[in-house]
Amino acid sequence: MNRMQQVLLGTAVAGIIFLLMAMSIQEATPWNRAPIGNAESVPGITEGAFTTHLMAFEVLGVLLTAAMVGALVIARPFHQSVDDAVKASHGHAAAFMAPEASTMLEEEE
Amino acid sequence: MIATPYVALLAAALFCVGVLGLMVNRSALRILVSVELILNAANINFVAFAQHHGNGDGITFTLFSIALAAAEAAIGLAIMIHVYRHFHSVDVDKPASLRW
């Protein structure tokens, strides 16, 4: 499949999906709005995050930490251990330091 | 305040742009951006219907969804860096095998 056919197929699929969605939105009328609850106040939103959905909030924190560590491990250069990566990051940091600071770092090593 | 159907239409349009990007692009970076567009379409729907129903849970889920998108982007970019080091390209057609 060449590039032009790919673009045409993608446009057709996206257009059909949009038409289906627009038709279903139009058929779903009337859209009766409920009275405003806690959806438009910051205290209402934060209360939900820290009471009803507290467990999800905590799990999300763990997930973000795991994702950060995972991303660092995946993006590490080939055949480099974690210790080597830490040492390399020290050297990399030294390049951006003032000359006296990098000298101090070399003396420590 | 904008009526909910118009916001839903905007989200549908954003979703379709994301789908178009997914189908047309071969660069992993552009595909990642397209996935983010689709996620943001879902977020817009969450916020619109939370306001429509007067319930703040949808906005809370949106916050969770944004954090999930951040995690996904971090992992995706890390995989992309790895693929680039191996294949010298981020074209998704290049890595034809999962054997590293």
Task: Walk me through this protein's architecture.
The complex is a heterodimer of chains A (109) and B (100). Helices cover 74% and strands 0% of the residues of chain A. Chain A has 109 residues and is mainly α. Chain A is flat and about 75 Å long. Chain B starts with a helix and ends in a 13-residue tail after the last helix. Chain B is built from 3 helices and no strands. Chain B is elongated. Chain B has one domain: Helix Hairpins (Orthogonal Bundle). Chain A binds chain B through residues 6-7, 9-11, 13-15, 17-18, 21-22, 25-26, 28-29, 31, 33-41, 44-45, 47-49, 52-53, 56-57, 60, 63-64, 67-68, 70-72, 74-75, 77-78, and chain B through 3-5, 8-9, 12-13, 15-17, 19-20, 22-24, 50-60, 63-64, 67-68, 70-72, 74-75, 77-79, 81-82, 85.
Short description:
The complex is a heterodimer of chains A (109) and B (100). By secondary structure, chain A is mainly alpha-helical. Chain A has five helices and no strands.
Largest interface, counted by CB within 8 Å of the partner chain's CB? A-B, 47 and 41 residues
Sequence stretches where pLDDT stays below 50 over 5 or more residues of chain B = none
Total of DSSP H or I helical runs spanning 4+ residues of chain B: 3
Q: Distance between the terminal alpha carbons of chain A, to the nearest Å?
A: 57 Å
**CATH topology-level fold name of chain B:** Helix Hairpins
Topology:
The complex is a heterodimer of chains A (109) and B (100).
Chain A: H1 3-27, H2 42-52, H3 54-74, H4 82-95, H5 99-108
Chain B: H1 4-24, H2 28-53, H3 57-87
Helix pairs in contact in B: 1-2, 2-3
